[in-house]
Input
Amino acid sequence: MIDYYSPTAEFYDLVGVQRWTQSDALLASVLTGTGTGHGPVLDLGAGTGRATEVIARTLPDARILAVEPSSPMRAVLTSRVVRDEDLRPRVTVVAATAQEMELPDRLSAAVICGVLGYLDRAERTALLGRITDRLPTGAPIVVELMAVRAPQSVAPMRIARQTLGEQDYEAWLSGEPCGPEQMRWSATWRVLRGSRVLREVDVTHEWYTFGIEDLAAGTGLTAKQITPELGVLVR
Ligand SMILES: C[S@@+](CC[C@H](N)C(=O)[O-])C[C@H]1O[C@@H](n2cnc3c(N)ncnc32)[C@H](O)[C@@H]1O
Output
């Protein structure tokens, strides 16, 4: 696995918080009513713990298995969990990839936000099979993808801006096709003081493009599209 997130983990929450208000509410509405007695809720690619927190608040009886391979992202996740008396006894943080993680025999639900495009088709199929085998009928696998379902050029756009103390932070994103089912996203993070750029960090991510229906095809799961980014798979 390529760790795309280590170079930019410091920026993740900084610019994310502006974008999460709506997506957190949607995630919460999709999870509401989910049974939690079958096993933990898997938060795969938990990052800094944004979805972990939504799961915990929405499903107050759930235990959560938060799997995150990137060490700096996991550092923020661990900090978020340990400082919160509610999260601390309920969230287990595991350092692993989707491909290598060990799973308990039973899960109550799975949340996979911003992760599946890093896995190729065979890896996605194997993963969904492993998760589905552990879920009770009707339990959701909630999936957040990028809204782009087929490779295309995306012109540079500023996706977030945040001010912290005397500095501004900006995130820019552009994309180009790099294969029949894959895009290369270029992200630039800038730290500015006034008009002076103090630091710039560039990263590229390769991401498979597909939609929620493509994920369901041939798995026996039913897909429900909630928004262009968010969907649910159910058996
Ligand atoms: C866009 S972030 C999403 C983080 C979090 N789920 C959220 O919604 O804020 C993608 C996360 O997936 C993780 N990731 C990337 N490849 C992965 C893999 N093969 N297995 C598990 N996690 C992976 C990254 O380290 C990163 O933390």
